[in-house]
Amino acid sequence: MSGAVADPPSRLVVGISGATGIAYGVRALEFARKAGVQTHLVVTPAGQQTRHYETSLSAGDLAAMADVVYRPADIGAAIASGSFRTAGMLVAPCSIRTLSAIAYSNGDNLLTRAADVTLKERRRLVLLVRETPLTLGHLRAMTAVTEMGGIVMPPVPAFYLRPSSIDELVDHSVARALDLLGIVVPDMPRWGE
Predict the structure, then answer these.
(1) Residues marked as binding for dimethylallyl phosphate?
(2) Binding site membership: which residues?
(3) Where would I find the Flavoprotein domain in this sequence (predicted)?
(4) Torsion of CA 139, 96, 116, 72, to 10 degrees
(5) In terms of CATH, what superfamily is 11-181?
(6) pLDDT < 70 stretches in the chain
């Protein structure tokens, strides 16, 4: 058909904030690549600090895992626009500070702006919120995000698969989060299969 416009490749925005659990964001980038999904990454300064504490990855190593990387201050980036089509956005891990900024539409950096755009365009937003115990303020922010259409998914481990390593626990949580975004990770074990 002449003049037809092909759909762009499947794109996923991945945000990494400063909560503990950067392994979730790292695995999301790896799994998305395995699934043939183009990744657009933004890491907050606190996320970079957590990367330093929790991994042996350099900032360059982490950036190399994504197809496109943005600076948190670049609020004019492609992912800050609703016209930039994506499958949605995953924030992994998601700090309470980032959750709160998203809940109350405080797009003060590219990660929170991209999340706000994801919600306003009615695309899937999945937040792997890392905090416990939860205060009433945390719960209210989670409720606000949920009421706007976001999905709050604390990465609670599933033991029914009888995991033998922390990696298996991380893999399961990330695969479930990507499922919520319509991204299927090949060869992941599923209940009853």
Answers:
(1) 160, 176
(2) 18-20, 44, 95-98, 130, 160, 176
(3) 11-177
(4) 180
(5) Flavin prenyltransferase-like (3.40.50.1950)
(6) 1-9, 189, 191-193
